[in-house]
Amino acid sequence: MNGSESSKISAIEAVAQRARDASRAMLSASTDERNAALEAVHNSLLGAKDAIVAANEADKKAARELMEKGSLSSALVKRLDLAGKKFDAMLDGVKSVASLPDPVGACSLSRKLDDGLQLFRVACPIGVICIIFESRPEAAVQIASLSIKSANAVILKGGKEAEKSNAILVETIRSALRSANVPEDAVQLVATREEVRELLDQTKYIDLIIPRGSNSLVRYISDNTKIPVMGHADGICSIYVDAKADPLKAKDIVVDAKAQYPAVCNAAETLLIHKNALETVLPVVGKGLKEANVQVLADDASKPILDAVPGLHVEASSPGDYRTEFLELRMAVKVVDSLSSAVTHINEHGSGHTDCIVTEDESSAQMFMAMVDSAGVYHNASTRFADGFRYGFGAEVGVSTHRTHARGPVGLEGLLIYKYMLKGNGHIVAPYANGEKKFKHEDTPGIKPVIDS
Amino acid sequence: MNGSESSKISAIEAVAQRARDASRAMLSASTDERNAALEAVHNSLLGAKDAIVAANEADKKAARELMEKGSLSSALVKRLDLAGKKFDAMLDGVKSVASLPDPVGACSLSRKLDDGLQLFRVACPIGVICIIFESRPEAAVQIASLSIKSANAVILKGGKEAEKSNAILVETIRSALRSANVPEDAVQLVATREEVRELLDQTKYIDLIIPRGSNSLVRYISDNTKIPVMGHADGICSIYVDAKADPLKAKDIVVDAKAQYPAVCNAAETLLIHKNALETVLPVVGKGLKEANVQVLADDASKPILDAVPGLHVEASSPGDYRTEFLELRMAVKVVDSLSSAVTHINEHGSGHTDCIVTEDESSAQMFMAMVDSAGVYHNASTRFADGFRYGFGAEVGVSTHRTHARGPVGLEGLLIYKYMLKGNGHIVAPYANGEKKFKHEDTPGIKPVIDS
Prior knowledge:
The structure is a homodimer of 453-residue chains.
Chain A: H1 11-26, H2 31-47, H3 49-68, H4 74-80, H5 85-99, E1 107-114, E2 117-125, E3 128-133, H6 138-149, E4 153-157, H7 163-179, E5 187-190, H8 193-199, E6 208-212, H9 215-223, E7 237-241, H10 247-259, E8 268-274, H11 282-291, E9 295-298, H12 303-307, E10 314-316, E11 330-336, H13 339-349, E12 354-358, H14 362-371, E13 376-381, E14 398-400, E15 408-410, E16 416-427, H15 430-433, E17 442-443
Parallel strand pairs in A: 3-4, 3-6, 4-5, 7-8, 7-12, 8-11, 9-10, 9-11, 12-13
Antiparallel strand pairs in A: 1-2, 1-17, 2-16, 14-15
Helix pairs in contact in A: 2-5, 2-7, 3-4, 3-7, 5-6, 6-7, 10-11
């Protein structure tokens, strides 16, 4: 809350320090104040629509020029767009975050340690979050909204291609925060890649980094910081078609998981098939893949069956194909001898994201779901369901394949931790340590903390 | 689950790989199997008592020789001891962990996404935990018990001084696991400091490192690994005595927090006192500190008052004293102008462990508890309560000052994460993506997952 040491620090360290100060100030922002700030953000963005669309147009123009030179993909240019329906959806997103229940202050433990000595565990913001995202500028608004809702301070680093769009979006959000009496430094923007490198060193001020983007971005971040990172690099999802799979369910699920939107992390990359389903189920699945224009990379055992599917593009697979995130209409196929082999394959080759078994046998499904060590384990459902909105979280901060803090699609609660509040009346430890007094340790779910805000 | 790539790997990488394989195998160990394994561990340790006490005697003899040469403290030698009551307490600890409810499989979310499409979030082990601890050999048994209970695999690194004790304890535990049909590699021991360095690189196999020991150990670990670390380096806890503090409660709490056991992380190091309590409350607290043989380091405003306390050892403080974890009978004292200054001081100088306000004013207490950004925020209770056993967790894996995963005293649940289980009946995403179908997102707390184990 003071800047007395700020004379000798770098610009980026100053950004991080201001974020920490803002995060501390956010601790006193009530539910109503944070929701009012989101309302102000919504209205300011609406009021600045023309200027935002114009800045976005400039980004798009520059991007189209790069595309014509071949140095930017058309998909990326498309993702830059903020006009029309996308603008409205972005504003709706702010309202929808405002309408979510306040996650801050939720009490997950209420326990009487002894007479007059009451313990509570209460949800609170993590503090300072740094989110590094690529290209889509509406992500800046979504993330800022989630951060304000959860009383965190956020440092945003967007893609270079969306620089002008991000700049005006964040400036509009900050002006709204000023008007709403919430610290504007609760949302800050950092522009260049060089600045990211320096942000990664701010262990004192940044509590969590969430990279949202390419595999290489996530790896770069993870390899270059001591700050906890939440996210996922790979999404190598598998579908295991069991001996007792229903052929039509198998076909529908494999085609949906592979082809409904292949460029995303929850799309399936590998098809494992039980040897006893090879002649009964695989031809049906192969026909579906052909209709969806999927090319297959087949092992020796599955190749003859797939070769017999009219029109299906089949190549022989190599071992590396089973560790590859294709993100396009290609799928590696492998025959396994048993459920247990399928589990072993997935645990060794997958990325711990989402894996599915297709079977009519309930006990096989239970075994698969217990033994596959992934964030999502599915039975007879497409891996594409692995998404915060589809899970009903209202918003998503990312998908985590880590095994601490949060796993799988992460909603608002991924931006929260808790603190313990203990209320006594002069209680000291000495009489408990020497045996004079004993703890009662009675859970008291009916007793809630009084939280000042 | 195979060792095909093990020919080219180091001994430590092989340890880590075996731990990963064991953690996967633990996924199929039922509640009863894990509790039976703990029973077997208890019985084996009891059966091996003479050999364990003999090995411990050898460690103690070597330590006493080092102590006589002045290269080991007597406190450390004392902490090595495993005989008598300590042995019995160690065995009781195993039984008490066995009697805790099974944390694995607990369902924290049950939601109907649509007809026939049911989502569950189910607690599961993190996987492979590495715990690095110092001197006290019974910690090996406690940690191994918690790890077995939570279906994790653990790699233990104990202190050099307890080498023989740790070796026989872990070998006894492993033989019990073999007899109980739980993979023995779920508990492994690593002996040397050089091996620790290599363990810190095993990002592929180790999911979480928990250092339990000195500040320098924790810093070394945190500075030298990309694996998530849970724990705390410093425990700089403060007591803020408010303008409306009850003098006797203030005295009791300050003395207990500082002097009841000064060598631990939840002991208080700093006393902040409101200027209006300077003449009324501080003399009473000072008298208590004198009786407890505490030396004080006072700022200019508090020094005259403390100097007037008969027999109290008072020195002038320097700024560094307010960032120091004394771990002995010394305490820094500072006068503040307001509650808000106290909060700012704590957030800037403290370590986010546990801080307390002493006041009779409820709204000041609420403000303090909301604004102090620490794992524990206390009102009229000694900071020494910050402990997993005192919170009623039955067991403690450590105290975390991090802001992700787990914060404050961490019980068994700190060794758990969750996975999402989705049960469908051939459900695919396409009709939801094109608007044909809509999600229902109804919470269904009565519907529980069937878990195979």
